[in-house]
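Duplicate of #3305? Posting structure anyway:
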């Protein structure tokens, strides 16, 4: 912490902040590595860090076509939770939650983890039964979960609409107290700095344009900065999984959709939890700067764009007003979108691909940011040992061959419905 000590901050402040050293190196790519990770977002950086720390594999490069953390890591609503109930998901996301809880100490970098609690509202007796089932499954697996009735929710969240004219009356809520938010770019920067200190090369402005082949096996990548050979090539590229897999001749059960989010003008502290509106796909929290962070549903069309359509804008703001009428005069400041790679069952793929030399971590749908630590931990295990980690053993590509689904929402084989 001497790098950011009070003395260092004072000294650099008095000199115009012109003499800070780099948080990580900017190396030129070497001709060959043991492992090349494509994608410099949270998942790729976490994978590199755990490869070095847990498995001693340090001859690794992370290739990013833009800048570190410039993709979906910086384009989400920063929610962290582990309230999953399907076998395969439950313990994986709980491992991620446990890693989140000590991540700042692990990386020696403040990721601003805020365990402010997570409410999932239900608006009918049927939704209440589903919430009760999820809560019981979480408790049976040792995960914190509570179920609150309407009077308790009214006491805890007094600013929601409980009037007789409420379009979607609130019956109660499922609650996870350890859940909350983390600062998304700090997560990328923390993993980047920690990986760099393990000897990992982080190479930005380096786009992968194809693969190097030898007798039907991938032995490296073609990039905008020249060919780079590697014994193992690992993809962690969020919404761009499909077309990079296609360059290797793979057609994956993944579609890419756009997911939008919004920030309002700042308010005094009002929403001190994360709240999910169960009547529509809408969620709200408040940032450290005071702005309300609003999330909505997917745009229904396939796209790689980082901006969405007006129907979802309207849907999200209508949901906000239905849940909290006091927000009706609030102004939006910013809006963004992330490209989400959606699988047919809404759960990810982590593992070795049918093409020798290629490994994949993708298909995260809505779960990417909260999964970052466990995703990197389990993917590093898989790459290093050639076998799945027990917590990610169900996330194989082969599950789609035998029709086995990890369908958390029960939406069926419709990617945009998850």
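Output from current build:
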């Amino acid at each position: 912490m001497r790098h950011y000590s009070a003395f260092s901050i004072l000294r650099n402040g008095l000199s115009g902040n012109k003499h800070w050293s780099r948080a990580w190196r900017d190396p030129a790519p070497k001709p060959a590595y043991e492992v090349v990770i494509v994608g410099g977002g949270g998942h790729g950086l976490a994978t590199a860090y755990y490869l070095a720390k847990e498995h001693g594999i340090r001859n690794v490069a992370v290739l990013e076509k833009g800048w570190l953390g410039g993709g979906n890591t910086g384009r989400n609503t920063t929610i962290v939770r582990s309230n999953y109930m399907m076998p395969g998901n439950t313990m994986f996301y709980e491992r991620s939650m446990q890693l989140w809880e000590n991540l700042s100490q692990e990386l020696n970098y403040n990721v601003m983890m805020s365990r402010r609690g997570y409410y999932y509202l239900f608006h009918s007796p049927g939704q209440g039964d589903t919430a009760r089932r999820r809560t019981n499954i979480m408790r049976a697996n040792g995960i914190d979960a509570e179920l609150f009735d309407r009077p308790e929710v009214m006491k805890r969240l007094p600013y929601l609409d409980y009037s007789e004219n409420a379009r979607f009356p609130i019956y109660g809520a499922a609650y996870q107290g350890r859940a909350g938010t983390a600062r998304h770019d700090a997560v990328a920067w923390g993993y980047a700095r920690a990986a760099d200190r393990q000897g990992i090369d982080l190479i930005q402005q380096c786009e992968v344009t194809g693969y190097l082949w030898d007798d039907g096996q991938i032995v490296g990548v073609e990039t905008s900065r020249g060919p780079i050979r590697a014994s193992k090539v690992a993809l962690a590229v969020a919404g761009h999984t499909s077309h990079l897999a296609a360059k290797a001749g793979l057609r994956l059960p993944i579609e890419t959709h756009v997911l939008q989010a919004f920030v309002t003008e700042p308010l005094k502290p009002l929403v001190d939890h994360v709240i999910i509106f169960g009547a529509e796909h809408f969620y709200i929290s408040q940032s450290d700067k005071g702005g309300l962070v609003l999330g909505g549903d997917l745009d229904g069309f396939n796209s790689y764009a980082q901006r969405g359509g007006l129907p979802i804008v309207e849907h999200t703001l209508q949901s906000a007003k239905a849940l909290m009428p006091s927000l009706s005069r609030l102004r939006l400041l910013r809006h963004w979108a992330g490209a989400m790679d959606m699988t047919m069952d809404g759960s990810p793929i982590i593992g070795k691909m049918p093409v020798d030399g290629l490994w994949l971590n993708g298909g995260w749908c809505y779960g990417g940011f909260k999964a970052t630590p466990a995703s990197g931990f389990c993917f590093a295990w898989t790459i290093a040992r050639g076998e799945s980690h027990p917590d990610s053993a169900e996330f194989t590509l082969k599950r789609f061959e035998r029709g086995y689904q990890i369908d958390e929402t029960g939406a069926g084989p419709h990617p945009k419905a998850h």
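Confirmed duplicate; merging threads. The longest strand covers residues 254-266. The chain has a mean pLDDT of 94.
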